[in-house]
Write a structure and sequence with these properties.
This protein is an alpha/beta fold. The protein is built from twelve helices and nine strands. It has helices at residues 15-21, 23-30, 47-56, 60-63, 79-85, 97-102, 109-112, 143-157, 168-176, 181-203, 227-230, 254-261; strands spanning 4-10, 35-40, 90-95, 114-116, 124-128, 161-166, 206-211, 231-237, 248-250. Strands 4-5-3-6-1-7-8-2-9 form a nine-stranded mixed beta sheet, sandwiched between helices. Helix 8 (143-157) runs parallel beside helix 10 (181-203). It is globular, with a radius of gyration of 17 Å.
């Protein structure tokens, strides 16, 4: 116990797509270097509410963030605040929403695109925005850029908890639907980049968890209760996760599980058992 932990959120990645198109991840499962489960996302299946669920252990109806348009600093105990209070360090490579939620202020791209401050709520961060995304150029920044940035944070600062969040599957899914070839191909691109990052993280003492916030439907949308929206992968490169292979995991267990992996007790607000 007590290893460093990296959580990878592949935004919008369906469970079935992960299993059919993410060859590196599934090869790791086949080689018994990792294990995979189906995880059920909470409702509504919308990104910002589920980022908050993943980090607080509360479903949206309980934490109160119910849409991307209502994003605000998290008022609840969360993975970042618990780790900060325990004197541990955190790092993020991800969407600017994570700064607004957990770094203590609204995001300003000119002030916050790069953060290195041991006294900040999130000590080390590289944020991106979706400004200028369009159908002609929907996938910037590249997956390799994001994975390289995550590796640089791990190599140079070794945060106890590192979050990597990529939006490209979600973006392509909105343009081409969750059943389009472009969406599936993008899942392969993400998987390819992770094949370069995860072995480096593992060799540096990180346990790595890979999941998604929600899936994507045939209309190129998400929010509702379809299985393709609620069923997401949960892949663990770790020997700390001991739940049975056929278990259906609850998304609310991610936060207390991360804290348990770092030898920290979960706050009482995370009242669902960790999935260990």
């Amino acid at each position: 116990m007590g290893n460093k932990v990296c959580l990878v959120i592949v935004d919008g990645l369906r469970n079935d797509t992960a299993r059919t198109d993410c060859g590196y991840l599934m090869s790791a499962v086949e080689a018994k270097q990792a294990r995979i489960w189906t995880m059920q996302a909470c409702l509504p299946t919308i990104s910002a509410p589920l980022y908050e669920t993943i980090h607080t252990g509360l479903k949206p109806a309980d934490h109160g963030l119910l849409s991307n348009e209502a994003i605000r600093p998290s008022p609840h105990p969360n993975v970042f605040s618990v780790l900060k209070a325990a004197g541990k360090t955190t790092g993020v490579v991800g969407h600017s929403f994570f700064h607004t939620l957990y770094a203590g202020s609204d995001f300003n791209v000119f002030d916050h695109v790069e953060v290195n401050d041991p006294n900040a709520p999130i000590s080390h961060a590289r944020y991106y925005t979706m400004t200028g995304y369009n159908q002609a150029n929907p996938t910037m920044p590249s997956e390799f850029d994001l994975c390289a940035q995550a590796w640089a944070l791990a190599r140079d600062y070794a945060p106890d908890y590192l979050l990597l969040h990529t939006s490209s599957c979600d973006t392509l899914g909105h343009f081409y639907t969750g059943e389009g070839r472009e969406y599936r191909i993008q899942a392969t691109h993400v998987d390819n980049a992770l094949s370069q990052l995860i072995p480096r993280l593992r060799s540096s003492g990180y346990d790595v968890l890979v999941t998604a916030d929600h899936g994507m439907n045939a209309d190129g949308q998400h929010a509702g209760d379809e299985p393709c929206l609620r069923e997401v992968p949960f892949i663990a490169f770790s020997d700390q996760i001991r739940v049975k292979n056929d278990a259906l995991l609850d998304q609310r267990t991610i936060a207390p599980t991360i804290l348990a992996m770092l030898d920290l007790p979960a706050p009482t607000t995370m009242n669902i058992p960790a999935s260990l």
